[in-house]
User: What shape does this take?
Amino acid sequence: MDSARVFNVEGIEDFRVALALFADDARSALSMIDVELRRGVDWITHERPAHWQHESRKRADALNRAKENLVRCKTFKAMDGYTPACTEEKKDVEKAQKKVREAEMRMQATKHWCREIAHEMNEFEGRLSQVTSLLDSELPKALAVLDKIIKSLDSYLAVEGPRTQQPLTGATSMANASNAESEADAETSDAEPADAEGAAESAASSAASSAANQQVNLATSSDDTASATASNTAISPNTTS
Amino acid sequence: MQIGDLNTGGARLSLALKTLRMRWEECKEHWGDRTRMQFEENHLAEIDPVIGSTLEAVGRMSEMLGRAQRDCSEEQGSVL
Assistant: This one.
């Protein structure tokens, strides 16, 4: 026989609260990640290409102006009969050329990262959909199972008396049945015979015999298929593990 | 400042998982039967790997955004 070992129902209730909080926190964290990710991706795929296109044009214009200044310098100074150095103008042209090259490189880099980010986003969204499924589907199921377990234990304690630090041995069948219920593969056979036996022993040996015949409805909703089976399971409050 | 700060959300998710683990360990002190093990196996076992792989993906994406920011910015930095 499986023996229940629940020392403190509040411990399970606390975890139920913690699980719900985890779901909220995880959703909130994912929302933050999503907002920031969109901001980052938008910056790379929209803001940056526009920025570098604008910069490329601006720098190309600056280069043209620098080249015109150089030509003007050479023409103007050549009138005096010597070949002018036009050092400053040449430096300006070199500087402008460097800036144009840099803009081209940044533009190429932006295109590269647009492709890389798009690829990584596919994988990332796959991961996010797994978490979303976990939070939206699996965790609510887990919370519902915990609710049933807690409800079952509370029902048992309502029969047994105040909560105690002793293990709630009779609760095994309830908890197991609740779990099996949620998994849609109820296995009540392992709980029923032993509990029935325990109930009989209790009924014969203690003043709690009336409680031993108490039936506990494990189902929290009327449409639960396993509720009929579970509600026919007698619990044995004084059975030791 | 990084454009697209994923680390704050990632840290929050990581902390949420760490807290849940702690609460489960505490709960196990009060609940030690087969039902608990089944519950853990059926409903909790998936959380760790799914969140863990998500955090890895967040880390990779964050690093990628950081490199992209450096390469696509005005400031000096590597260009690929």
